Amino acid sequence: MDNLARLVNREPVFLEYCSVTGSEGRFFTVETALGVLTAKKSVNCLVEPLPGDTVLISQTESGRCYILGVLERAEAGPSTLMFDGDVEVKTTDGRFSVAAQEGIDLVTAKDTSMVSAELSVNSMEAEVSIQHLSFFGMFLEGQIERIKLIGQACDSVFDRVSQRVKRSYRWVEELDQLRAGQLSYFVKKLMSLRGKYSVLTAEEDVRIDGDKILMG
Question: Residue 144 falls within a domain, yes or no?
C-alpha cells in the first residue's frame, strides 16, 4: 500500500522540445509552450547548451526543469563538454583512443601527469619550450642525423666518456684548459703543434725519442 501511495502522489513529468534563449552560470533560460522557464542542465547532458540550440527538457508542475540533452546546434561551431568537479574516463577492457583531424590541445593551469608502461611519440616536427627540465632514467639511446645546440654554459659529470668520430673540429676563442691525472695521445701519422709561443715544463724529466730530431 505504501508503494501504491507513493506512485499516486508522484509528480508527473513532461518532456518538451524548446529553444535556449540565454544562460547565467549553471542555469539556462528556455522558451517553452508555457513561456520562458529557468532550467538546470542535467548531469547526463554533457554538451554545454548555447543560445539558439534546440534542447530536450523535462519539467514538472511545481516548476522543476532540467535540460536532458542538446538536439540541434543553432550555428556551426565547437561543442563544449562541461563538467562540475573532477572527471575520470575509464575502460575496464580494451584501448582508449582520441583522434582529431585538425589538432589536439591540452591546456591546464596546474600540473599534467602521465603514467604508462611504454611511451611512443611519432611526429614530423616538434617544438618544446620548458623553463626547467629534470630527466631521470637508466638508459638513453638516440639516432640523430644532426645536432645543433646553443647555450651559455654546459656542465657534465661522468665516470667515463667514450667518443668515436671520423672528423673533429673545435674552435676556442679564449682559453682551452685540460686538467688530467694522466694524458696520452696516440697518432698514426703526423702530430702538429703550432703557436706563437710554446712552453713545455716538467718537474722531473723531459724525454724526446725519435729516429731523427730536428731543432730549428
Answer: no
Q: Are strands 35-41 and 65-72 parallel, antiparallel or unpaired?
A: parallel
CA distance 26 to 53: 16
Domain that holds residue 55: 12-72
Tens-place pLDDT, residues 40-51: 999 888 899 999
Q: Where are the alpha helices (DSSP H) in 122-182?
A: none
CA dihedral 20, 23, 26, 28 (to 10 degrees): -30
Cβ atoms of 54 and 17 closer than 8 Å: yes
**pTM reported for the whole predicted model:** 0.61
Cell of 93: 577492457
pLDDT digits (tens, 9 = 90+) for 52-98: 999 999 988 887 899 999 999 888 778 888 888 888 888 888 899 99
Query: Which letter does DSSP use for residue 188 in this model?
Result: S
